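Researcher: Let's do a round of design. I'm pasting the structure tokens now; please hold your answer until I've finished.
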């Protein structure tokens, strides 16, 4: 049996397993990709609240990433919660030495509960150190607005801001429009104007689903894109497959008494 492709998630650990490394591993498994993890923070959280965050020392984070990249044929990398300037710099120093590996950056800043997941001085490190290394950046509306310094209130503004960020950071941008009011959720994929794939924006639209299981949607989407890139799928196809998977995970979400979670299970588990 041939071994599967390998993807690495560099992110925080969510004890409720709805987001972070746990969500990424479940997503990688779904796509038949072997998942590796480098832990940035241990987070006591559920979909309801973020109670506490304990950061892993940056030197230990670097040891994890260096060891994994040295021993495994990593075919794609995604980053999630990096938390501080020191952690972003630690990761960027290593990833800069591996420019051939596709990198999906989910610029985690604020949890769905409203809790801050990124220290204020870390945004500069994002901009100057990590974003220029990315293949794809996947901000939501709030994150894109913070990065661009402008409100986003329409699809036209989504595309305009996505193009501005793509040119600024010289990477593709998938700006997620799920927080925009309306019956349809629309995400916009653009490339830098100077890139070989520059051209019309690619829109991915879907009906808004009435479900409380929103915790971990950003992590799951970016992990699914990374998994598809590890499988050598072109970027637009990777985004489309990831969007379809996220829709399934939302439709099949779990609900207990007052709390919900995405279902990132395998296709076999869904059929059963």
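Researcher: That's everything. Go ahead.
Model: Designed sequence:
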């Amino acid at each position: 049996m041939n071994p599967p492709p390998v993807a690495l998630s560099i992110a925080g650990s969510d004890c409720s397993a709805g987001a972070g490394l746990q969500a990424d591993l479940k997503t990688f498994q779904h796509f038949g990709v072997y998942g590796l993890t480098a832990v940035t923070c241990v987070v006591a959280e559920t979909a309801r609240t973020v109670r506490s965050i304990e950061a892993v020392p940056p030197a230990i984070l670097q040891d994890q990433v260096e060891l994994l990249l040295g021993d495994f044929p990593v075919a794609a990398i995604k980053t999630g919660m990096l938390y501080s300037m020191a952690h972003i710099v630690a990761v960027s120093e290593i990833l800069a030495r591996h420019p051939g590996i596709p990198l999906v950056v989910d610029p985690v800043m604020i949890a769905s509960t409203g809790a801050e997941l990124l220290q204020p001085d870390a945004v500069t490190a994002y901009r100057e150190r990590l974003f220029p290394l990315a293949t794809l950046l996947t901000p939501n509306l709030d994150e894109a607005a913070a990065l661009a310094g402008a409100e986003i209130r329409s699809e036209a503004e989504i595309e305009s801001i996505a193009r501005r960020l793509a040119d600024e950071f010289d990477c593709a941008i998938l700006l997620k429009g799920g927080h925009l009011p309306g019956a349809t959720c629309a995400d916009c994929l653009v490339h830098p104007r100077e890139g070989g794939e520059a051209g019309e924006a690619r829109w991915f639209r879907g009906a808004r689903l009435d479900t409380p299981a929103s915790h971990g949607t950003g992590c799951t989407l970016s992990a699914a894109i990374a998994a598809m890139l590890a499988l050598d799928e072109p970027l637009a196809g990777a985004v489309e497959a990831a969007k379809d998977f996220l829709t399934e995970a939302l439709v099949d979400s779990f609900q207990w008494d007052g709390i919900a979670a995405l279902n990132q299970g395998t296709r076999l588990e869904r059929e059963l």
